[in-house]
Specification:
homodimer; alpha+beta; Nucleotidyltransferase, domain 5; 2 domains; seven-stranded mixed beta sheet; globular
């Protein structure tokens, strides 16, 4: 009998289940289910643009629906039976923590909390806790510099402790009602494994190390003395969280009878430890030492790995360097850009007030422009700067406009801005000795947007490969499941068998590259001025002042 | 018999003739004629966005048509006869120089030159000669600092010598074919007066002083030694230009029989000396010492006057301080912003790709925003910076965008940007001792855009009055005509009788004012950084570099 694994990928707007042939990596069937709640699956607050939550009930609905539909699709293939499924892997957005009760049930599904936004899952892109993040950065710098040394010396409002602390500050009743908190990436595997106690939830090193200041070096999560500096209640909470987080060579449990029946799958098949989407995505792209994976979607995540047998320097401004976060035995290095596809979508749908089809029209016009021809330069900070400056309280810039500047010119300038941001990350990583011999891109934009990919090649001066799969995150989770199911001795052999590259390679055009080198130098100046790196520019505070004034105008 | 004067106003897209009752200022009739050539009357070059020319034939067509139609309209009023017209005043855009032959005929109307863009009138907003302007600034700073001391120490690409020199550089055949050059403001009166020799064209001090470095102090136009530093041919041209320029107490001539017959007007009535539109506009607004007139249209012009009995300091960054340029006996002080209405039009029509009616829709949304609520800040430099920095090679900036920023928020931010630019000018003038006790606004935007006017009041912290006439430039020209026709002993008495204010006064709201004070401080930082005032910001060259790269991308 042929063997298959399931990869389940929880995105921002939908969940996808993928059935993968363990021997060949063939993607037999998949199904996507949109989250029913909120705006495209996200719970918003019209009074606070920073807020982004999700309904935990959507996760359970999406889990059952997506797997059931994918299996139904797979069953149309001759030779496939559900008994052939040997394991399940799950990846999700992160840091997306949610409060749970003593039985590992999310507060958000309880009738008394279901309408309370603070009792739901705090989605990765929720930025309400920027003040708490800044305070954690300060306190850590003063008392535990080692905690933030691996995450660019800056703790983010997108991360675990900022969010939980903000919940405690703005909704103490929710905080008090929560027995514990779990990352979405740990929660879904725990559901499949039938875990009924938060203490029994297997916690992945991926979220713990990147988002929760977890390290074996200092005995796990931040110590209680430090947490008490934030709030004594956070120190108390530590006892109800976890002692140990593990890498993807571990299982999160075995498929419990209840969910086996719901899904029509064999009881007891292994559930891989959860990782964040792009981490499993990197695995699905065939990441190894020397390969930088770029998952380019609404935002971009950059992932690399370096053998744990080597030393890796602390890289200023990089989101995290975490042992075992992506591949067991390797440091996982994560960087990223907070808005990429989202930035273009903002321009086309938010500003130009056109529909998604308008991207194609603007692309036709933007493709006709030569590098530099528009005279425009933009900063890609509409959703803050995740890597290099690690500052959510930064905002966008467009400059160089004349009275003749067009929609398409600005569209292209925004694409170029994200390319410059990508180059900043690449140069920073390289500067600190992380080898980048190959760049593999994945995600909808990398697959479809030929103009963007060529601009990225021209701006970075690097050849860009594209992942063979359109569903690399789910594929990576399926690879992880194949490993824990014992189909392969290690990730390397599983990746070699199950992942691939497309034939296309984007090569830099030397003429364009030269112009972009000039523009990148200007981007650097504006970046450093508004980012506060060039303190003499006296502009480092401008965006923050604008946000302060904006907040008080409410 | 009642007496009337005609004010003829040459704008960027059309010409307007206004019949005014000399005793009361009543506007009896008017007619507007669009220039038939080019795009909305402007000849463009798709390969060079800096280029803006006009067909001189349009001026002659527009002169006859507008006056004829206005008179026809006026004749419907009982008691009016064409014999009642006692004088004509003309205002035009400027600096709009054009090459003419030895008979004062524009080259552009000659069959052999009519398709040559360089042989047409070089419209005020033509910026092709930025390199020449920069060189004139350098040479003047080194050899004749007094020449540019009165125009902010910076010569502009919008002005006379830059344009003529650029013509010599790019189209020597046109330069050589030109016997002389005349400003449009001097040309139209000379046509009415039947002047057939450029030497006979009466030149107004308004254009000469503001745009051509003319001053009685140094014997008129720049000396030949200096002009030879630019190009020996410009030194030669000086002999074919003029020795003397005069103020508006003078006549440009008397209506010649040919045009009297064409127009059906009495032969020999006086033609006032031409001034630039906003200068006569200031007169039409009742300008006197202590009054700042703001004509707010596609661009904004600020005009003030100070008695020539006093000393006026050189004001850095102000377009010009010229004796007699507006009112005889007073220094005329001119400042301005290169894009105001044009900036909003760019946003609505150029970027949002909507029609003019969309302004109203955006205004509805923008009006709901509190000051500072958008988190945005913009620089109003899409067409360069005319006053303070006097630099056409600056470009626009929008900053503070998030993924939620809307069309209407940016629309309002652009309006606020022009308000901050207006405040920069106001503060600069006041800093150098020019009294501003009253601000009178005119122009289509001042009359119609209530939101903008309130924002301007809130940003500047000043009460804003609005001119009683919708056609202040033409009215001012008609006032000038009434004075030279001997209906009044001086401008003051003519203005008192013929000009008025509307009842509306915009008063600053203290709450909004406080927020705008904060935003203005931030505007100042960004202004100084990109404008090169704060050299340490290292951003002063960014926009120029972008323009250089843009130029080489062609």
């Amino acid at each position: 009998m042929l063997s298959y694994t399931l990869g389940v990928d929880y995105g921002t707007n939908s969940v996808r289940a993928l059935v993968v042939n363990c021997e060949t990596g063939e993607e037999l069937a998949s199904a996507v289910v949109d989250y029913p709640s909120g705006h495209q699956g996200v719970l918003l607050d019209s009074a606070d643009a920073n807020l982004a939550r999700q309904n935990p009930a959507d996760y359970l609905y999406g889990l059952e629906e997506s797997i059931t539909r994918a299996l139904a699709e797979a069953l149309k293939h001759e030779g496939f039976t559900a008994e052939g499924i040997v394991g399940i892997g799950v990846d999700t957005t992160g840091s997306s923590p949610m409060p749970v009760d003593a039985h590992n049930v999310p507060l958000g599904v309880h009738p008394q909390w279901k309408d309370n936004l603070n009792a739901q899952c705090w989605l990765w892109k929720d930025h309400t806790s920027y003040a708490e993040a800044a305070r954690i950065t300060e306190l850590s710098a003063e008392h535990r510099p080692q905690y933030i040394a691996k995450c660019g010396n800056t703790y983010s409002s997108e991360w675990w402790w900022s969010k939980i602390w903000h919940c405690l500050n703005v909704a103490p009743e929710v905080f008090d009602a929560a027995h514990s908190w779990v990352e979405l990436a740990d929660y879904v595997p725990s559901v499949l494994a039938g875990v009924k106690d938060p203490k029994g939830v297997v916690r992945g090193i991926c979220c713990a190390g990147h988002k929760a200041l977890y390290s074996d070096e200092w005995g796990g999560l931040p110590d209680k003395e430090f947490l008490a500096l934030l709030d004594p209640k956070l120190a108390e909470l530590r006892d109800r969280l976890y002692e140990k987080a593990v890498d993807a060579s571990n299982v999160a449990g075995k498929l419990c009878p209840e969910w086996a029946e719901k899904l029509g799958l064999p009881v007891g098949i292994p559930i891989a430890v959860g990782e964040m989407d792009v981490h499993y995505g990197a695995i699905g792209c065939g990441v190894d030492e020397g390969t930088l994976v770029k998952v380019i979607g609404t935002s971009t995540c950059d992932c690399g790995v370096v053998s744990m047998k080597k030393e890796v320097a602390d890289i200023p401004g990089i989101c995290g360097i975490v042992p075992g976060a992506i591949l067991p035995g390797y440091y996982g290095i994560e960087a990223g850009q907070s808005a990429v596809g989202d930035l273009f979508k903002w321009w086309v749908e938010g500003v130009c007030q056109d529909d998604a089809a308008h991207h194609a029209k603007l692309t036709v016009d933007a493709e006709k422009l030569k590098p530099g021809q528009s005279g425009l330069l933009a900063l890609d900070w509409n959703n803050g700067n995740r890597t290099i400056l690690v500052d959510q309280r930064l905002t966008g810039v467009i400059l160089g406009q004349t009275l003749h500047t067009t929609q398409a010119e600005i569209y292209r300038a925004l694409i170029e801005a994200t390319a410059f941001g990508a180059r900043m990350i690449l140069e920073r990583i390289a500067e600190y000795g992380v080898p980048v011999e190959r760049i593999v891109c994945a995600g909808g934009i990398a697959e479809k947007n030929v103009m963007l990919m060529q601009i990225y090649a021209d701006v970075t001066g690097r050849e860009l490969c594209v992942s063979g799969s359109s569903q690399t995150c789910a594929l990576g989770a399926a690879v992880g499941a194949a490993v824990v199911a014992g189909k392969y001795p290690d990730f390397k052999s599983a990746q070699d068998a199950m992942t691939s590259l497309k034939d296309v390679v984007y090569k830099p055009n030397p003429v364009a590259q030269k112009v972009y080198d000039e523009l990148f130098a200007l981007y650097g100046k504006v970046h450093d001025a508004f980012g506060g790196v060039n303190a003499q520019a006296d502009l480092g505070g401008v965006m923050k002042e604008l946000l302060r004034i904006k907040d008080s105008a409410r």
